[in-house]
Write a structure and sequence with these properties.
- This protein is an all-alpha fold and 372 residues long.
- 69% of the residues lie in helices and 3% in strands.
- A three-stranded antiparallel sheet has the order 1-2-3.
- β2 and β3 form a beta hairpin.
- The chain is globular and about 60 Å long.
- The two termini are 18 Å apart.
Length: 372
């Protein structure tokens, strides 16, 4: 009892097992970034470590915010991020052929990343306000579709197909969880099947190439298929136990493009092998399992929808990136959360975890209240 009294309740209530897993994932990523830089803390490992400490503090602070307050700022937050997406078109700078970022000095902010959790909160708020009897009416569909379609269109013109896909997928999951009629989703699948070839013709040339190369990577191994080919070589050459720390050749000899960002899992697998890859996948799986538990235990509709949507967003990050680097999905530029170098994706994930921790704290507080 005395030892518990020495620990503030705000600290004791944190989900320490989940935070330990998150710290392990990030720490492993820092080791890989250190190796990818040739055994140097700069330019990747040290800035990434500083960001993680700052964003972890932010996540803990968000976890202390009552869910009711999160609920009431969902629509204003959506409006602010939507404004930032418009601002990107006017003031954003161009990098690697795309205009996606706003310079904040200490980091480059990618507003499209922030839209991933914000669209979840906004739709959760919308369906929370909507009477259950309205779910099977058109009034439940067109506002949600508009809320989802406008930011997705703004992200597509940047262009950023991968992020737009994640925003749309997150929104569709929210509509499904909210209880919209199944026929709408079946109709949507049929529409995509028919309109897909037409939409394909409107993609940028490099985006079309990514889809075509995904279907047949060997058709252009030195051109559009180079990323996938080198990634598969790096993963395969690691074997069971890997080549050893600082001994990877694909990344150190610059054969593997983006070995510190989108393809960091390939860099990791080359040096740490199947064992290292499985370790980080299992860690992600336990974080996702914790998030699902938070959603299942939520006591109100908004918390339940928000928690389910936010943990699904993290799942999409992990699943799409791993499928991408293994050649099981087109290269769409989705980073591996907490591992790939970059601030915007880490900020997004930590925002998701912060809100989830807040819902988890609310669940346990209410549980203790009922038992009392």
């Amino acid at each position: 009892m005395r030892s518990q009294a020495l620990v503030p309740a705000a600290i004791a209530d944190l989900p320490w097992r989940m935070l330990a897993l998150v710290t392990f994932i990030t720490g492993f990523g820092l080791v890989v970034l250190y190796s990818a830089a040739g055994g140097k803390l700069m330019p990747w490992a040290l800035p990434q470590a500083v960001r993680f400490c700052i964003f972890l503090g932010l996540a803990v602070a968000i976890s202390r915010v009552r869910t009711d307050r999160i609920k009431h700022i969902a629509f204003p937050a959506y409006g602010i991020v939507l404004f930032l997406l418009v601002l990107v078109e006017a003031l954003g700078f161009v990098g690697k052929g795309a205009q996606r970022w706003l310079s904040l000095g200490f980091m480059n902010l990618q507003p499209s990343e922030l839209m991933k959790p914000v669209i979840i909160l906004a739709l959760a708020r919308f369906f929370d306000l909507l009477p259950v009897a309205e779910l099977r009416k058109w009034n439940a569909v067109w506002p949600a579709a508009a809320m989802l379609g406008v930011p997705a269109a703004l992200i597509l013109v940047q262009p950023d197909l991968g992020t737009a896909m994640m925003v749309v997928m997150g929104g569709i999951v929210m509509m499904f969880l909210a209880g919209l009629p199944l026929r709408l989703f079946l109709g949507g699948i049929a529409f995509v099947a028919v309109a897909g070839p037409v939409a394909f013709s409107f993609l940028h040339e490099y985006q079309r190439n990514r889809v075509l190369i995904f279907m047949n990577p060997e058709s252009d191994p030195r051109g559009a298929g180079y990323h996938i080919a080198q990634s598969q070589i790096a993963i395969g050459s690691g074997g069971i136990f890997g080549k050893g720390f600082l001994k990877g050749t694909q990344s150190h000899l610059q054969y593997l493009p983006e070995g510190h960002t989108d393809f960091i899992f390939a860099t990791m697998a080359e040096e740490w092998g199947l064992i290292g890859g499985l370790a980080i996948i299992i860690a992600y799986a336990f974080v996702i399992k914790w998030g699902i538990g938070v959603a299942l235990e939520a006591k109100d509709r908004f918390s339940r929808l928000a928690a389910a949507g936010l943990i699904t967003t993290i799942f999409f990050y992990v699943a799409i990136n791993l499928m991408m680097v293994m050649g099981l999905a087109p290269v769409v530029g989705i980073p591996l959360p907490l591992v790939s170098y970059g601030g915007s994706a880490m900020l997004t994930v930590m925002l998701c975890l912060g809100i989830l921790m807040g819902i988890d704290r609310q669940n346990r507080t209410r549980g203790r209240g009922l038992r009392g």
